Structure formats: C-alpha cells, structure tokens
Amino acid sequence: MQPADATAAGAAPLAGAADALCVPAATGALRARLQGAIDAELDWGADVQHCLAGVRPQGDGVRLIYKGTVPGTGPLLLVFGLSPLRPGESARNVPVNLTVVREGSGQFFATQGEDKCALDSVTQVPLPGDTPMYRLEGRGYCTQPARAVAGDGSVLVSRFDVVAVVPARPDAPGTGKPTAAAAR
C-alpha cells in the first residue's frame, strides 16, 4: 500500500466529541472486505479521514481507528485493537480485537476477543521529525465474524490491510491517555 495523505486531499477536520476519538492523521489507509450485515469492499485512501493511532485504553497494545462512508450503508467506524504490540515494535501473528460501528444507527459488531482476527505481519518504521512517530503497516484476516452487540447479525472482515501513524509516547494525542493540552 502506498501512503495516503488526507490533508492533501482536503479532508475536513473532525469537530467536537469526534476529535477525542479521531485525532486527524495525514497518512493512513484501510483496505478490507466486509461480508454479512455489511457487505462492502473498502479502499479508504487519501479521500477518507484517517485517525492517529494510539495506545489501547488498557495500555496493552495499539489501537487503530478508521472512519469512512460506504454507499448504501452510511458512515462506518472500524477499530482494530492490536495486542500485545507496542509503538515501534514489528511482529508476526498479532492478535486483533475488531469493532465495526454503523455510526448513527446504534449498530455495533464486535469480535469480543482476540482469538478471531490476527495480523500476519506488522511493521513499524520510524518517521522523521522531532516527535517520535512510527509508520505502521500490516496485513490481516478474521476467521470468525464480529457479532452484533445487541440484536442479530454479524460482519466478517475476511481480510484487511492497514497503514497508520503511531505516536511513540503513550501520552501523545490520539492515544486515549490525557495530555496537558487535552486537560485545558
């Protein structure tokens, strides 16, 4: 996958409460195949808002967030929890917890565990700059679907490729950990 630059594509910044969940990142991409209650082939690149990755709220891995719209389905949010993986680490066979949200509909689908999806491989390469950041790339799959949290239905994400920017510090924006700027 080639890096995508959401800023160059003119992506509008997210506002209000959405900023807490998705701190805009200039680079990111998601390709995925969804089947079931949501049937879509995602190829989100420069034309889709990307979120800065971060440390999972439990502090036990990395969280990737992607937001986009699917014709006929509406806005989607996909959250990938990679554990155990730290910013800057590369690894193979990394367990993934996946949540798919149909925003505005109240529909949530979750694998509810890290035994249903995995990244075959994930690499993190340092990015130039004053703030330590990594470019994460990974390729993964799910062997079982994300099931509806309430109600019926499921979504199988049979394959996915991810590109994201991961801050090295657990207290950086977008990591789920408060910063001095966020407290103001």
Q: Got a strand count?
A: 13
Integer average pLDDT: 80
The total count of helices amounts to: 2
Major sheet: arrangement of strands: 8-9-12-13-11-10
Overall body shape: globular
Uncertain runs are: 1-20, 172-184
Percent strand: over 45%
Structural class: mainly beta
Helix content: under 10%
Q: Give the CA-CA distance, first to last residue.
A: 38 Å
Description:
This protein has 184 residues and is mainly beta. The protein has one domain (18-170). It has 2 helices and 13 strands. It has helices spanning 18-21, 180-183; strands spanning 24-25, 29-36, 40-44, 50-51, 54-55, 62-70, 74-82, 91-102, 107-110, 117-126, 133-142, 146-148, 154-167. Strands 8-9-12-13-11-10 form a 6-stranded antiparallel barrel. A hairpin with a 4-residue loop joins strand 8 (91-102) and strand 9. The chain is globular and about 45 Å long. 39% of the residues are buried.
Give the secondary structure arrangement, pairings included.
Layout: H1 18-21, E1 24-25, E2 29-36, E3 40-44, E4 50-51, E5 54-55, E6 62-70, E7 74-82, E8 91-102, E9 107-110, E10 117-126, E11 133-142, E12 146-148, E13 154-167, H2 180-183
Antiparallel strand pairs: 1-4, 2-3, 2-13, 5-6, 6-7, 7-8, 8-9, 8-10, 9-12, 10-11, 11-13, 12-13
Characterize this entry briefly.
The protein has helices at 18-21, 180-183; strands at 24-25, 29-36, 40-44, 50-51, 54-55, 62-70, 74-82, 91-102, 107-110, 117-126, 133-142, 146-148, 154-167. The protein is mainly beta and 184 residues long.
